[in-house]
Design brief:
Layout (H helix, E strand, L loop, with lengths): L1 H14 L2 H8 L3 E6 L2 E6 L2 H10 L1 H12 L4 E6 L5 E3 L9 H6 L32 H12 L8 E5 L5 H15 L5 E5 H13 L3 H9 L3 E5 L8 H16 L3 E6 L11 H7 L3 E5 L4 H14 L6 H8 L6 H18 L5 H15 L5 H11 L4 H5 L5 H17 L4 H7 L5 H17 L1 H14 L2
Parallel strand pairs: 2-3, 5-8, 5-9, 6-7, 7-8
Antiparallel strand pairs: 1-2, 3-4
Helix pairs in contact: 1-4, 6-7, 12-13, 12-14, 14-15, 16-18, 18-20, 19-20, 20-21
Length: 452
């Protein structure tokens, strides 16, 4: 069984792009072969549906060619009842071939429309890994079938992790398929500025017609409209108009909807109607893949030890990681020297010293209080309100993880709390994070922002 699947994996890797292979094929686990039946476990229903629709026939063909047996492919979400997939004789078109089909945005319903989409941000240029697999999969699903299943799509994650890349990739993929789709990308700031100008010059009908006639609306960094009453009201009505017309809405944010302070409840509830996907800081393997792709695109020859050095740096911001690479490449070009580990250390020494500075308990308390929009004095107080207790315990938990302070020292910073209180808080957050993925994401995002 293992030999057949290993040989199949080799052929699949040759047929698919590295991103698609890593995202969709690697998670598959061949668990059993019985006569002409092969059984695979997949991590979740989303992966099952995507693999079934896009790769099942290719997998079936390669396995059958290698073994000279026509197998039936069976997928199952690990731990759930078996889900059979009958064989099919439909011609196989690989996902890579589909992605490479040419399309244009000129002409059609988009002629003369300021779509604002960055053409360099495509799915082919996005490096998928375990940290962003779900968001990447959701984005591709929406790009292939706008306004069918995942509407709205809400993508959230820290700064520089790829949210803007993904939403632009959705727009580019849709426009490649149909030049008649009305698609536009806006930052929330640009949306707000356009609203202000429309109010100023009495052009609100034009503003509303523009946004409510879109087939696909991509709004980046929606958290910036929080607290802006008129902007939220206008976006609320735009959202309703598009949703009721079965048009696709994609929104990004640096926080989960309910964690955005100042966001109206009616908007928050609508963002939670559809699919919410998160992007976590990349692991070392994903950072290595990103560095190698960026190095190739920028014509920088980077040795493996230098790539590992950069990937193991504290930086989890992909944008900044690329900045490190460009800095090294520029230095090598200007001085006509070869990129080496010693040279990379020297070029980045000032940046990495700053990055590796000690984080204090006071900084952690301030960051957590800002995130939850509560006063620092409340976190340090003996108040037992639920809105204060959880942020306080999170701050204690992060303080223990990111500083060298002892339990009594941490307790002192939290208004003279006993060391047993700190220990209880750490155990409580550890347990909650095992049960609550959203809380785990929040804690990781706060930790990541403290490292920047």
């Amino acid at each position: 069984m293992s030999k057949l699947w290993e040989d199949t994996l080799v052929q699949l890797e040759l047929n698919l792009s590295p991103q698609h292979f890593t995202t969709w094929i690697k998670p598959l686990k061949c668990v059993k072969i019985e006569q002409d039946q092969i059984y695979f476990d997949v991590p979740n229903r989303f992966v099952l549906d995507w693999v079934r629709e896009n790769y099942a026939k290719l997998i079936q063909k390669i396995i059958s060619d290698i073994s000279a047996v026509t197998y039936r492919i069976n997928f199952n979400v690990a731990g759930q009842a078996r889900d059979n997939l009958p064989p099919t004789n439909t011609p196989i078109i690989s996902n890579v071939q589909q992605v490479k089909q040419k399309g244009r945005v000129e002409g059609g319903d988009n002629a003369g429309l300021d779509i604002n989409i960055n053409r360099k941000y495509t799915f082919e240029e996005f490096v998928a890994g375990s940290s962003n697999q779900f968001a990447y999969a959701a984005a591709m699903a929406v790009a292939n079938n706008p306004a069918t299943t995942y509407n709205p799509l809400f993508i959230y994650g820290g700064v520089g992790l790829g949210k803007t890349h993904l939403v632009n990739a959705i727009g580019n993929a849709i426009l490649k398929k149909s030049q008649n789709m009305r698609v536009c990308y806006y930052t929330s700031e640009k949306f707000m500025n356009e609203l202000i100008n429309s109010l100023r010059y009495n052009r609100m009908d034009e503003f509303r017609n523009k946004f409510r006639s879109m087939d696909v609306l991509l709004i980046d960094d929606i958290q910036f409209i929080a607290g802006k009453e008129r902007t939220q009201e206008e976006f609320f009505h735009t959202f309703n108009a598009l949703y009721e017309s079965h048009k696709q809405i994609i929104v990004t944010s640096d926080k989960f909807p309910k964690d955005i302070p100042g966001l109206e409840e009616r908007l928050r509830s609508r963002f939670e109607w559809g699919l919410i996907a998160d992007i976590q800081p990349p692991d070392v393997e994903t950072k290595l893949a990103i560095l190698k792709m960026k190095a190739e695109h920028n014509g920088i020859r980077i040795p493996e030890d230098v790539a590992l050095f950069l990937a193991n740096s504290i930086c989890s911001n992909v944008r900044e990681l690329e900045g490190y690479l460009i800095r090294i490449g520029a230095y090598a070009s200007l001085t006509s020297t070869t990129v080496t580990l010693e040279m990379a250390r020297d070029v980045l020494k000032d940046i990495l010293v700053e990055r590796n500075r000690d984080i204090t308990v006071e900084e952690i308390i301030k960051k957590v209080s800002n995130h939850y929009n509560i006063k620092i004095s409340d976190i340090k107080s003996p108040k037992r309100l639920k809105t204060v207790v959880l942020p306080r315990q999170i701050a204690m938990y992060i303080s223990r993880q990111l500083t060298s302070s002892s339990y009594p020292e941490i307790g002192e910073k939290f208004g003279g709390k006993d060391h047993s209180t700190i220990i209880h808080a750490i155990k409580k957050i550890d347990k909650l994070m095992e049960e609550d993925f959203q809380l785990k994401t929040t804690v990781e995002n706060i930790k990541n922002s403290l490292s920047h």
